[in-house]
Records
---
Amino acid sequence: MANTSDIRNGLCINYNGDIYSIVEFQHVKPGKGNAFVRTKLKSLTTGKVIENTFPAGHKIEDVRVERRKFQFLYNDESGYHFMDNETYEQVTIEKAMLDSPEFLKEGIEIEILFHAEKDIPLTTEMPQHLVLEVTYTEPGVRGDTATNVTKPATVETGAEVKVPIFINQGDKIKVDTRTGAYLERVKA
């Protein structure tokens, strides 16, 4: 059992029968009245973000979690298959638990958060940026150089990304996996 003074970003707690991760918190000490902690909690089962206020000194039930690195192997109708790099144990995760499965390519390492006592996967964390090869894009139109002109491009995982017109088929680009946005061209 912990209390509100132990709250920090990333702490996992059991609240209303669900497991939540603290995304944001703020200790507030008003001039009048008692202190409290304002929090944003993200459900690890549904992904829904809620706001909640705890009075100062309130007891919270923290959940012990473990982060483990897994390598993406393949996906099929039963889900996405990952392998633990240390034990070679395989785990299957459903698509709903993944933030951006369209950017997964064979060999990518991700972190999977496990409930320590029950040993069940709670959530996954993709790398923030990935370097992917453009497999198809239309050629840029000469003279179309207005600022921020983009065109669709298909990357090696099959995902579509909006890229600047100077990107060609075969180029490697860095993509933000959280937003799906093009970041930069990577020199080979």
---
Amino acid sequence: MATSSDIRKGLCIRYNNDIFKITEFLHVKPGKGPAFVRTKMKSVTTGKTLDNTFSAGHKIEDVRVETHKFQYLYSEGDMYHFMNTEDYSQIRLMKEILDTPELMKEGEVVTVLINTEDSSPLSVEMPAHVVLKVTSTEPGVKGNTATNATKPAIVETGAEINVPLFINEGDKIKIDTEKGQYQERVKE
């Protein structure tokens, strides 16, 4: 048993007869009243997001997890296929338990959280950022840069990302997987 002070990003807990992964949290100590922890949790079975507040010292049931490195192979409808990089076993996961499937390209190595009780996969953690090639975007208009202007661009995985006007087709860009935002252009 853990308490609300043990809450951190990525922690898996059992709540309302389901398993949730903490995606965001904030410890709040108001001037009046007791402290509490405001959380955003994602169900690992349905993919639904839930906002919840735990009072200070509240007992939570954490789920023991192991992390394994898996390589993304391909998708088939809503099923995504992964291969364990150690023993080459393969698993299939539903799209709902993936955080940002639109930013995953074939061959990408991700971390899969596995429940130690029944060896079921709970969630997939992407690397902090990925480098993807821009496949299509409008050309930037010269002199249109008075502010931080952006334009939509389609990357090689099919995701649409807003990029600065100087990005062209064929450029490789670094994308923050947590926010799904452009970070920088990558030189080759």
---
Amino acid sequence: MGPDDPDAAAVTAWRAGDQAAGKSLFAKYFEPLVLFFRNKVDEGVDDLIQQTFLAILGSIDRFRGDAPFRSYLFAIARNELLGYYRKHGRRAGDVDVTEISVAAMSSAQPSRLLARHHEHQLLLDALRTLPLDLQIALELVYWEDLSGPELAVALGVPEGTVRSRLRRGKEMLAERLTELSADPATVDESVREIDRRIAALG
């Protein structure tokens, strides 16, 4: 594992059988996983979180540490999410994450627990209309501050593809926000914040 990974010691200890280390990672990433899943599924958030950690536990010996643990965690979470859609979504079979949106696959409404302000709710509503991998990329940048390389691991694509998806996603998000909001200032503020975080990727 890279020297800059703050979770390296806990992962090493967990791999060696230290269950307390595994519990510490679960506690650290429980809320980020709640945020990840809650705007994407109708129900079963707790089950998806549990399945994500069970999948990590089952593969932890194969985790080489080439990327930070959190990027690996969100890659597993994304796989569990796609499995959920294949099993429970409106559309059976493969899920084309480059085309289909959460809004098209789900009858769920965005969680009001996530939205502390009206503009945050608009952002959540707009994100759900984007193709799923664009939504995931923007949310991981916006809420989790994942870097370009971390996003590449989480999404399973080259970093250049990540950056092109972020640009496309930002453009689509601005369009959706404009459709949903009568206040241009709210749209501008949300887009500026996304711009700032994408620019910080370097």
---
Amino acid sequence: MSNFYVVATPIGNLGDITFRAVETLTSVDLILCEDTRVTKKLLDKYGISVLTMSYHARSKISKVEKIFELLEKGKNLALVSDAGTPGISDPGALLVSKIKEKFGDEVQVIPIPGATAVITALSASGLPTHEFTFLGFLPHKKGRETLFKKIADAKRTMVFYESPHRILKTMESLQKFCPDKKVCLARELTKIYEEFKTGTPTELLKYLDGNTEKQRGEFTVIVA
């Protein structure tokens, strides 16, 4: 029986990998990476010399067939993303689904837990965490306004990811639809310039407008 490991990797600081993740990545026959160049930095740090192969959102069906072929031969594979837990707002979710559909119990899918930005952000936000909804990345256009209306009406904490290119537009939308809600911006989590900033959408928009360097990096947005 082949094993397929879903391995969480650090979201920024490379020291945040688990002992079990290092052991797993060292022992498998092949590591599937969102970007092999990004994963190489992590593997080099821990002296891991296992072969890698790319798998991402634009991978063709032939790549999936190659993965199936390796599993049929009894190879043990690991899946990693560029940062965090594969399958969470990540193309790895589709691959895991395809493997389970094709092989059932013949291939054991084993999670190796670790960092994920949504939980990391919530844990230090100071906002209510007993009940929350994770929205992943918001749509760029279609359905975006409807989603902000739902965020405004929500009775639980709402969490989503946003890019530096759209963070100002997102804060403007929050200002429009839920101006009185408390929002936490978690930026560059576990990295050198990690920052948590909390306030109303208006306050945060003013802060970002006045500090263009604070608009850089990846954001996790938490709306109480």
